[in-house]
Amino acid sequence: MNDMPSTAESLTETPEWRALLAHRADIEPVRLRELFAADPGRADTMTAVAGDLVVDYSKHLVTARTMELLLDLARAVGIEQARDAMFAGEHINVTEDRAVLHTALRLPRSARLVVDGQDVVADVHEVLDAMGEFTDRVRDGRWRGATGEKITTVVNIGIGGSDLGPVMVTRALRHYHDGPQVRFVSNVDPADLTGVLAGLDPASTLFVVASKTFSTLETLCNATAARRWVVAALGEQAVASHFVAVSTHAERVAAFGIDPVNMFGFWEWVGGRYSVDSAIGLSVMCAIGRERFAELLAGFRMVDEHFVSAPLERNVPVLLGLLGVWYTSVLGAQSRVVLPYANDLVRFPAYLQQLTMESNGKSVRVDGSAVSCATGEIFWGEPGTNGQHAFFQLLHQGTHLVPADFIGFGRSTDDLPVVDGSGSMHEVLMANMFAQAKVLAFGKSAAEIRAEGVAEELVAHKVMPGGRPSTTILAPVLSPSSLGQLIALYEHEVFVEGVVWGIDSFDQWGVELGKEQASVLGPVLGGVGDPGSGDGSTDNLIRTYRRMAKE
Ligand code: F6P
């Protein structure tokens, strides 16, 4: 596989890895309070900037020596060569023999990148222009439904990367939404489509069927049902003006009944979970318009440029990716909690779940050999302050090590005064964010609690252990640009982790068998004979299901 580092040598046998493991013993007794006391410049040294994102990683269980050892490891696995290979369009997705070029989706029109004999930048801008023309027409009312109605609702039908990115970005950019309302259907549970269509008028509804492969069962079921809904109300000829597609597969789009002139294409080198900035973002562009979408892309590009050019010691995706490896593979953390202190980022943790877990949830390396350390982080989270009243108890006093990512903004898009009519609710929000990160890191000792006169039998219950690590990411305001920067930051962080672990972060073979089994079991559910699924548990469950289905 071209220039990617060889995995012949197990990561854990390298001298750099051994040095990190040996260093763990130096870190384990260290307290964050002591680290800050010993080095007044720690917060400055351990704050790095990528584009508009200011990233404080000083509250991590690391010393300057830890970071040196992690950077040695990054160099030893050839992080810069791997990054350059990705940006150059080499086939780093080895198991599918594909380039990985989501970074080309945000290159400026003036750039040129020839991959496999094709200038991909020209292709990208041709599609962006087509998207822009189409969304202009939908937004200004020149695109009409079959009966001449203006489109007031766009329904995106897709799943996984063809849903999570558009949902997350549309929700995050609520403040910038000046186009038709946009809704999303993903689940094959008919409740999803039925709920979304409730109250909609087919005459003013446009469906965007988004599927890279155009073969995903859920999407085809939902799109077929939506088509029936339109045809029942408006007739067969209405399909042309009420359905467009986003896909890499023109033939399947045509077979479904959507004219490929109403298809917006992308390419095999865009992974589903890396596709929100491709034509998969069509519904986002309907909501916010082409200029705002261009700002989103420019945001991605700012962090791409930082990732490509910043020295490793100041390279934020590299530093955060290495910290991910440190916690997962050395300190034994199993999950990372993402805490956006911005309600509009409510779907960001779910978006990151696919981005990170479908990418790095692997137990073999690119050459097929088993990994020799823990890989992949379980991502979860909720916006603050809601999470504080739900799971923060475990973060503060539980037994698990859960590194946290706090994400906050200097300004709110919609600030309101607090209850007494003064001050700012946004300030209350941000005060909570800073307080939580502070308490997680520094805690409160038994001595401090006793000094407050707390009854002795309660002291142990009130001790806040501290030493709980977090990153804080601050940006000026939640905007298309800063959102693009945030997404690109995590994309590259995932990449860095994958390179260190030596895995292919761009395939997802683990999701295939479940799909196959579902298609085998589908016809069995409605049958009458022995389910014959091959295992007693599934057979029993199917019998019970059949009985319940008839009750
Ligand atoms: O099943 C996983 C997956 O292949 C994801 O990787 C992808 O984002 C999703 O399904 C949807 O795929 P498609 O866009 O081809 O419908």
From TrEMBL:
Leader sequence residues: none
UniProt keyword terms in alphabetical order: Cytoplasm, Gluconeogenesis, Glycolysis, Isomerase
EC number(s) reported in the record: 5.3.1.9
InterPro entries: G6P_Isomerase, G6P_Isomerase_C, Phosphoglucose_isomerase_CS, SIS_dom_sf, SIS_PGI_1, SIS_PGI_2
Annotated GO CC locations: cytosol
Keyword Zinc: no
Subcellular location: Cytoplasm
Pfam families: PGI (PF00342)
Domain of life: Bacteria
Catalytic reaction annotation: alpha-D-glucose 6-phosphate = beta-D-fructose 6-phosphate
Keyword Nucleus: no
Catalytic residues identified in the record: 358, 389, 515
Chief site of localization: cytoplasm
One BP term from GO: glucose 6-phosphate metabolic process
Recorded GO MF terms: carbohydrate derivative binding; glucose-6-phosphate isomerase activity; monosaccharide binding
Pathway, per record: Carbohydrate biosynthesis; gluconeogenesis; Carbohydrate degradation; glycolysis; D-glyceraldehyde 3-phosphate and glycerone phosphate from D-glucose: step 2/4
The protein's role, per its UniProt record: Catalyzes the reversible isomerization of glucose-6-phosphate to fructose-6-phosphate.
Family designation: Belongs to the GPI family.
HAMAP family: G6P_isomerase
NCBIfam families, alphabetized: PRK00179.1
Protein's name in the database: Glucose-6-phosphate isomerase
Organismal lineage: Bacteria, Bacillati, Actinomycetota, Actinomycetes, Mycobacteriales
